[in-house]
Write a structure and sequence with these properties.
Largest sheet: 6 strands, antiparallel, barrel
Radius of gyration: 35 Å
Structural class: alpha+beta
Number of helices: 10
Strand content: 25-35%
Helix content: 25-40%
């Protein structure tokens, strides 16, 4: 009996799994079904792509803010003073030109100059304090309380704008208006009340594509090449409103404006300006050669546009563009000329005319009448070499300054220890 059951078992198992030996034929797919399936897959792909794109643009600003990394270091090369080029250029200007100009020629010249203006405007902005209160005068006239600035650098994350620091007074928020009329919030990167300038920053990821395509970083020219009689263009708030345009010539390049620990060349023009004028001075190649300010020779009651030479400001611009404080000691002085050395027996160096109260120089014991001849190991023979030596220091550095002071038996050597600071807490910027 057991044998019968064992014989039946393999037969039952064979019948139970017999379906595994059957061939299952796939259902035939018609052309219509194939097309429907393809359309369905394509539709799903479009939906997924759209959702992914929306998600990307939604998180892009936040990602850029969190993952932006370290800003690039801004480098602004200093300009050399040319030798002989200016005289050669002047000689060329004196050559007689045998050409009769007509009204059409004049119109063509104006058109050509305005093309240069349109290009230069892309680098000019208006900086103003942001306020939640309504400015009814601005609404009525379209004229706002602002200063003109110039886009001087792009560190990969921000556009950096050089402008008068007067707009920083009593303000905590700022906005920058670009040439296309759009405004964006700005912050102060660094401020120097000694020279009267500041660098403002605008986040690049806040700018629209339209604004980005309408602007550019201005080219800082070599103001040492500027010469009397050269044609210039003044852009900005020179006439009491933001987008003024004026043409003229350089009337002088021979004078300086002094401030503590430095001086800056002045480019005088024959262009009319209003009280409180600020703006940018361009040469005919569209390069920035000066920063227009009404505090230059303000005590003379002059109403022509004058500008600080841009080449003399480049070291300060570079410091502020990288978020650094401008070093400050607090000495107002002048170069001891060869004539003074010969006639008065004065040693070479920087003659201290005045020391700023509550300054690092005052704390170190430097006095009026001292002659500084070395700063942190660097020889000083003029105001320009003294300024360069100071700007190479950090605003929190402790340095040695060597000088001479006149006594009963002549000049004696002095050694000062100076804690370098900055001028941002001071109230006066320019010595009259």
């Amino acid at each position: 009996m057991l044998d019968e059951k064992e014989q039946e078992k393999p037969q039952e198992e064979e019948e139970s799994y017999s379906f595994l030996q059957e061939t299952i034929k796939p259902k035939k797919i018609s052309r219509k079904m194939l097309i429907q399936q393809f359309v369905r897959i394509a539709l799903y792909g479009l939906i997924f792509g759209g959702v992914a794109s929306l998600g990307f643009f939604a998180v892009k600003p936040a990602a850029q803010r969190w993952l932006k990394g370290k800003p690039e270091t801004v480098t602004i090369p200093e300009d050399d003073t040319p030798s002989g080029q200016a005289d050669a250029a002047a000689g060329d200007q004196n050559d007689p030109v045998d050409q009769t100009l007509s009204k059409e020629n004049y119109e063509e010249i104006l058109k050509s100059m305005y093309q240069a203006v349109k290009e230069a405007k892309k680098g000019v902005v208006s900086v103003s304090a942001a306020s939640e209160e309504e400015d009814w005068d601005a609404e009525a006239t379209g004229i706002t309380s602002s200063v003109s600035g110039v886009i001087t650098a792009d560190n990969g994350q921000e556009l950096l704008i050089f402008a008068s620091e007067s707009v920083c007074k009593d303000a905590e928020k700022w906005q920058v208006e670009f040439v296309d009329g759009t405004s964006y919030k700005a912050s102060v990167k660094s401020r120097d009340k000694n020279s009267g300038f500041a660098v403002f920053s605008v986040a690049k990821n806040e700018l629209s594509d339209a604004t980005w395509n309408a602007i550019h970083v201005a080219e800082l020219g070599n103001s040492n090449l500027a010469a009397q009689g050269d044609g210039v263009i003044a852009l900005g708030n020179t006439l009491g409103y933001e987008d003024g345009v004026s043409y003229g010539i350089i009337s002088s390049t021979e004078y300086q404006q002094k401030f503590r620990d430095g001086e800056c060349g002045v480019i005088g023009t024959d262009i009319s300006g209003s009280d409180g004028a600020t703006g940018i001075l361009f040469n005919m190649d569209g390069e920035v050669i000066g920063m227009i300010s009404d505090d230059i020779w303000e005590d003379k009651g002059d109403h022509t546009v004058n500008a600080y030479a841009i080449s003399d400001l480049k070291s300060r611009i570079q410091l502020m563009a990288n978020g650094e404080s401008v070093p400050y000691i607090g000495v107002y002085g002048t170069t001891v000329t060869g004539e003074l050395q010969q006639n008065e027996g004065m040693p070479s160096g920087l003659y201290v005319i005045e020391v700023d109260p509550d300054s690092p120089a005052m704390a170190a014991g430097i006095q009026s009448g001292d002659i500084i001849w070395q700063v942190s190991g660097e020889s000083v023979s003029s105001m320009s070499s003294y300024e360069k030596a100071v700007l190479e220091e950090k605003s929190d550095a402790v340095i040695r300054v060597k000088g001479k002071r006149k006594g009963a038996d002549g000049y004696v050597d002095l050694d000062f220890t100076v804690n370098v600071g900055d001028k941002n807490s001071a109230s006066e910027t320019i010595i009259p």
